[in-house]
Design goal:
With about 230 residues, the protein is of the alpha/beta class. About 35% of the residues lie in helices and about 25% in strands.
């Protein structure tokens, strides 16, 4: 049995025509194998596109790897420690944000004082301010939290240190008893780096250069990777 893990934005979904081909190829692949989507999106955010396209997958990895779902049930979730979160709220300069919310496993909340948040998202109106705060946070919380700049670099997304897609994939591999050499990953951005480095990693042709530099091969679409893997059966 083999396992493919695909990023969603600009990977599994690139355009309307490509996603339909990816869906057809994935359904066929899943007859004898396993397939997972891994995204930085929250569950509610991903559900909006899933309700449109009815994307086939055995596992869904969300929040940059902090949460894993199977059959829409959370089977793994790593929270931001509450004492760290309480300190962090002071350093986010929330009065300068235009939007802020946290994630409680499958649900979003605007109340960042709630305990056991899985991810925190803060959006600033000024990209320079976002960069300044981002760099300050990395220095102050480098051993406690992980930070991602997204959405034109105006939004900072925050998860617990040690959270990444590669770690979530390891959890799935243990559940399914899938060997390391039978795991394939594909993505395009910074939060895909660890899973591309750790497993049989591939890059989209529109990927960042850092990811292309460590990938085994580049593809225009996920269905092309699936076709190549099927040739090895």
């Amino acid at each position: 049995m083999k396992l493919i893990i695909s990023d969603y934005d600009n990977t599994f979904y690139k355009d309307e025509q490509t996603i339909q081909k990816n869906i057809i190829a994935t359904k066929e692949f899943m007859i004898e194998n396993r397939f997972a989507i891994a995204t930085g999106r929250t569950y509610m955010n991903f559900k909006k596109v899933d309700d449109i396209y009815h994307i086939p997958y055995d596992y869904l990895i969300i929040n940059h790897g902090a949460t894993i779902l199977k059959n829409n049930v959370v089977i793994y979730n790593r929270i931001i420690k509450n004492n760290i979160k309480n300190k962090l709220l002071i350093d986010l300069y929330l009065e300068h944000t235009i939007k802020s919310y946290g994630c409680l496993e499958k649900e979003n909340t605007s109340n960042l004082t709630k305990n056991n948040l899985t991810k925190i998202c803060v959006e600033y109106g000024d990209v320079n301010l976002a960069h300044k705060i981002y760099n300050e946070l990395i220095l102050k919380y480098k051993n406690e939290l992980k930070f991602f700049l997204v959405d034109s670099n105006k939004t900072i997304e925050i998860v617990s240190d040690g959270v990444d897609k590669a770690g979530a994939i390891k959890e799935i591999a243990l559940i399914e008893n899938i060997h390391h050499e039978d795991i394939y990953t594909i993505g395009d951005s910074y939060n895909d780096l660890e899973m591309i480095k750790t497993y049989n990693g591939y890059a989209m042709k529109n990927a960042i250069n850092e990811l292309k530099g460590i990938a085994k091969k580049e593809y225009n679409a996920v269905f092309e990777l699936i076709e190549d893997i099927k040739r090895t059966y």
